[in-house]
């Protein structure tokens, strides 16, 4: 059986002011698919973290775009955040740290974003090609849930 | 798009009985972070009052906001002044626990 995929693509300026537009689109799509309120809140944070990374690091001072692709699968939502900026990944190098087991004085301010993205989604893949930007693909599987939006 | 920013996120500050309470409303994300820092900067150094964030009306936060909270925790800890959160919505508490910042707030709240 061939699995049909419906795809929604939005292209936005890679600026902080547009990240909430991504969250609004995500909300609409995920609630239509039957994800629960809590699952959608999780995905909002994960997707925003990927967008934040693009806004902060992909294009340095230059204007650039971020392209977000929502793929509606039979039992999951796949979200890809793509930029065409430099392949600079300070968040990933930070290793997805958490503050557990750390004293306040040694707690790092950065690195939480990548950790949250991994913790809140079922699958996260980061692909970077020099000169061609970064593509972050995140998947959240649809649970059979009673609490629908 | 500067006008939208203020609608999306706002704060109110009040001082009462040695406690400065900043109530956050809306979405504290990357675009709201500079405004939030501006509100907090003059308050962080006040050492004769506890500094409290009321998060009851906070709808969204990510690592940007949590990072700011952490830097305030560090500054207040260095001054021996309290900084903690109250009325934290469930989905935000979950993020505090996942990242580990929750224990620092708990330490502050329970310290003398």
UniProtKB/TrEMBL annotation, chain A:
Q: Where is the Histidine kinase/HSP90-like ATPase domain?
A: 12-139
List the InterPro entries hit by this protein, alphabetically. Answer: Anti-sigma-factor_SerPK, HATPase_C_sf, HATPase_dom
The protein's matches in Gene3D superfamilies, at most eight in alphabetical order, are given as: Histidine kinase-like ATPase, C-terminal domain
Record key words, sorted: Kinase, Serine/threonine-protein kinase, Transferase
Q: Which GO terms describe its molecular function?
A: kinase activity
Give the matching SUPFAM superfamilies. ATPase domain of HSP90 chaperone/DNA topoisomerase II/histidine kinase
Q: Which superkingdom is the protein from?
A: Bacteria
Protein's name in the database? Serine/threonine-protein kinase RsbW
Source organism of the structure = Paenibacillus barengoltzii J12
């Amino acid at each position: 059986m061939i699995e049909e995929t419906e795809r929604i693509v939005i292209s936005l300026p890679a600026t902080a002011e547009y990240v909430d537009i991504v969250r609004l689109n995500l909300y609409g799509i995920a609630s239509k698919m039957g994800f629960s309120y809590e699952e959608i809140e999780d995905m909002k944070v994960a997707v925003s973290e990927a967008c934040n990374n693009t806004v902060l690091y992909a294009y340095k001072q230059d204007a650039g775009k971020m392209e977000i692709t929502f793929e509606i699968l039979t039992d999951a939502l796949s979200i890809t955040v793509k930029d065409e900026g430099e392949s600079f990944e300070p968040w990933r190098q930070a290793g997805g740290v958490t503050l557990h087991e750390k004293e306040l004085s040694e707690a790092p301010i950065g690195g939480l974003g990548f950790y949250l993205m991994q913790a809140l989604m079922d699958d996260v893949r980061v692909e970077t090609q020099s000169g061609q930007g970064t593509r972050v693909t995140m998947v959240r599987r649809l649970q059979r849930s009673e609490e629908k939006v | 798009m500067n006008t939208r920013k203020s609608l999306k996120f706002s704060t109110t500050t009040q001082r009462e009985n040695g406690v400065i309470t900043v109530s956050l409303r809306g979405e504290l994300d990357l675009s709201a972070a500079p405004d939030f820092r501006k509100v907090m900067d003059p308050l962080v150094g006040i050492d004769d009052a506890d500094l409290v964030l009321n998060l009851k009306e906070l709808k969204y936060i990510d690592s940007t906001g949590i990072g700011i909270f952490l830097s305030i925790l560090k500054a207040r800890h260095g001054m021996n002044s309290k900084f903690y959160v109250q009325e934290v919505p469930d989905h935000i508490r979950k993020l505090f626990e996942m990242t580990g910042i929750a224990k620092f707030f708990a330490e502050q709240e329970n310290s003398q």
